[in-house]
Write a structure and sequence with these properties.
Layout (H helix, E strand, L loop, with lengths): L6 E3 L1 H4 L17 E3 L2 H8 L4 E2 L26 H6 L15 H19 L7 H26 L31 H15 L15 H14 L3 H14 L6 H6 L20 E2 L16 H6 L5 H4 L2 E2 L14 E2 L15 H14 L3 H13 L5 H4 L7 H15 L5 H9 L9 E5 L9 E5 L12 H6 L15
Parallel strand pairs: 3-4
Antiparallel strand pairs: 1-2, 5-6, 7-8
Helix pairs in contact: 2-4, 2-5, 4-5, 5-6, 6-7, 7-8, 7-12, 8-12, 12-13, 12-15, 13-15
Length: 477
C-alpha cells in the first residue's frame, strides 16, 4: 500500500517528544503539510539536535560536580555515577532517558524521509540526495545509541553482545527485538556507504550533512571497529574536503572572544552541528565543571583553556577544588560538543598512523594541531616518542583537551578499556573542600558494567521484548 503523497504531521512536536510511545509518538501541536520532494529535503536540515548526557555524564575523568549537589542528598543517577556506585541497581533510578528518546525521535524523522519521499512530487535527484543525507544522519544517531547502551565494539564478542533496536523504516507501531552490536555497526556502515555517492561537498546549508562529515563519521566507525586502514583512508578523504583548523593562537593575538565573536558560521572546523542540550548550551556550561585532572592537563599557554575557562570566584564551582568552568557565552564563541569537527578527524588520523607504527607522521599531525592551540611555539612542539604506546598516550591526552563536554571521552574510555595497554581505572577522591563528611576515594574499573547504560523504564515498559545489556534487574518484571 502506498503512503499518501500529502502527509500531515507535527514537525514542531518532533523535538519535544519525551517518551517513545510505541517507540515514537507524534502528537500534533501545529501542522505542516509535506507534499513535495523539496519539503522532505528541507526536513533533513535540523539545526538544534540535542543529545543530553545526563545518564552518563559523570562516568568519565573529565567532569566534576559541585559538592553541595552530592553531600546530604538522596541517591540519584548523578550521585550513583559520580561515586562509581556499582552495587546499586541503576534501572530503579532511570525512569526515562532523554538521550535515548531524542535519538529515536531523530531516527523517526530520517525514516520518515526515507520511507515517504519517493511518493512525493519532485525531482528524482533531489529525492536521492535527501535519502542519502537522511541515511548519514541516521547512522550518526545509531552510533550514538550503540556506544551508550551497549558494550564498545569488540571483534571477539560483537556478534553476540546485546545492542539496540534497529528501526529502519517509518513505522510507529513496531516493537522490534534488539540487534547485536555487530548488526548495528553493520547497519551504520551500510547507511554511510550507500549515502556517500550522492552527497555534496557543499550542501544547501550547514545543517545538511556534507561529504566531509560523512567521511569523518565513516572514519570514526572504522576506528571504533579497529579497522585502521579503512579509518585512515576515510580520514584522508574527509580532510581532503575540509581540513581547516581554527587558529586559537592567532585568535588570542586578536583579543579572543571578548574582542572578536566567532559564531557557528565562522568556525570552519565544524562538520556536524549537534549538542548536549542545544545551540546555546555553552551559556550554561557551568553545569559541567571540568575535573581537577583535566584542568591539570592544560599548561598556561594552552589557548583551549586560557581563552574560555575560569576558576572563579563563582557560585558554579567550589573554591579550592581545583576545578574550572567554561565562561564564554555561545554568542561570543561557538563550540560544538557532540557534533564532529575537523580536529577530531586529524586526531583519528594520528591514531591510525600510531597504530601502524608511523610515529613521526602521527606526531606531525599532533604538533600541527598544537601549533594552533599553544601560544608558546616552543611548548607546542613535542618530540616523537620511541613507542606506539607513548605516542598513543599523547594522542589520547590531546583528544581529552580538544573534544570536551560531549560524548567523546565516555566513548573513548569504553573503547580503550578493551585494550590492556590503554585501559584506565578511574579514581575520584571526594569531597575535596568540605569537611562535613569523610573524604573517600571511589574507583571505577575498566570492565565495570557502569559503562553500559541501562535502558530506561519507560522504554522497557513499552517494549516487553527488550532486555538489558547488563546483569541488572528490571524493577517491574
Amino acid at each position: 500500500m502506498k503512503f499518501r503523497k500529502s502527509l500531515i504531521l507535527a514537525l514542531s512536536s518532533l523535538l519535544s517528544l519525551s517518551a517513545c510511545n510505541k517507540y515514537l509518538d507524534v502528537v500534533p501541536k501545529g501542522k505542516t503539510v509535506l507534499s513535495t520532494t523539496d519539503d522532505y529535503y528541507k526536513m533533513v536540515s535540523l539545526p538544534n539536535r540535542g543529545y543530553p548526557i545526563g545518564n552518563f555524564a559523570y562516568l568519565t575523568d573529565d567532569l566534576w560536580i559541585k559538592e553541595s549537589y552530592i553531600i546530604g542528598l538522596p541517591k540519584s543517577i548523578d550521585i550513583i555515577n559520580f561515586t562509581f556506585d556499582e552495587q546499586t541497581n541503576r534501572p530503579e533510578y532511570i525512569t526515562s532517558s532523554s538521550f535515548y528518546n531524542q535519538c529515536y525521535v531523530y531516527i523517526n524523522r530520517w525514516n520518515m524521509v526515507l520511507t515517504l519521499i519517493d511518493d512525493s512530487e519532485g525531482d528524482a535527484s533531489t529525492k536521492q540526495l535527501a535519502k542519502a543525507e537522511a541515511k548519514v544522519l541516521r547512522a550518526f544517531d545509531y552510533f550514538m545509541l550503540i556506544n551508550v547502551y551497549a558494550k564498545s565494539y569488540d571483534p571477539a564478542t560483537a556478534a553476540t553482545d546485546g545492542g539496540v533496536v534497529i528501526m529502519d523504516k517509518y513505522d510507529l507501531e513496531a516493537k522490534k527485538p534488539k540487534s547485536t552490536v555487530a548488526e548495528v555497526y553493520q547497519f551504520i556502515q551500510q547507511n554511510i556507504d550507500e549515502a556517500l555517492p550522492y552527497l555534496q561537498e557543499k550542501p544547501l546549508d550547514v545543517y545538511h550533512p556534507s561529504l566531509a562529515f560523512a567521511y569523518a563519521l565513516k572514519t570514526k566507525v572504522h576506528l571504533f571497529k579497529r579497522e585502521y586502514n579503512d579509518a585512515k583512508a576515510a580520514a584522508q578523504k574527509s580532510l581532503g574536503y575540509n581540513g581547516q583548523i581554527f587558529d586559537l593562537v592567532k585568535y588570542t593575538a586578536q583579543g579572543g572572544p571578548n574582542a572578536l565573536a566567532v559564531t557557528a558560521a565562522d568556525n570552519p572546523e565544524v562538520l556536524n552541528y549537534a549538542y548536549n542540550t542545544g545551540y546555546n548550551e555553552m551559556n550554561i556550561a557551568y553545569s559541567y565543571p571540568i575535573s581537577p585532572e583535566l584542568k591539570a592537563l592544560f599548561n598556561t599557554t594552552d589557548a583551549r583553556y586560557s581563552l574560555f575557562f575560569s576558576t572563579g570566584p563563582s557560585p558554579y564551582i567550589d573554591a579550592g577544588s581545583g576545578t574550572a568552568f567554561w565562561n564564554v557565552p555561545y554568542t561570543k564563541f561557538f563550540y560544538p560538543t557532540v557534533g564532529m569537527k575537523t580536529t577530531e578527524v586529524y586526531l583519528m588520523l594520528a591514531e591510525c598512523y600510531a597504530r601502524e607504527g608511523r610515529l613521526s607522521d602521527a606526531m606531525s599531525i599532533i604538533n600541527n594541531l598544537r601549533s594552533k592551540r599553544i601560544t608558546n611555539a616552543a611548548q607546542a612542539q613535542l618530540a616523537t616518542p620511541a613507542t606506539t604506546k607513548s605516542t598513543m598516550d599523547i594522542i589520547i591526552q590531546e583528544r581529552r583537551k580538544e573534544l570536551m563536554f560531549g560524548v567523546n571521552r565516555f566513548f573513548d574510555l569504553k573503547r580503550f578499556n578493551l585494550e590492556p595497554d590503554y585501559a584506565k581505572t578511574l579514581t575520584r577522591t571526594f569531597p575535596i573542600v568540605s569537611k562535613t563528611v569523610p573524604q573517600q576515594t571511589y574507583t571505577l574499573k575498566p570492565n565495570s558494567r557502569m559503562y553500559i547504560i541501562p535502558f530506561a523504564q519507560d522504554v522497557l515498559k513499552l517494549n516487553p521484548s527488550l532486555t538489558l545489556n547488563t546483569d541488572e534487574t528490571i524493577p517491574f518484571r
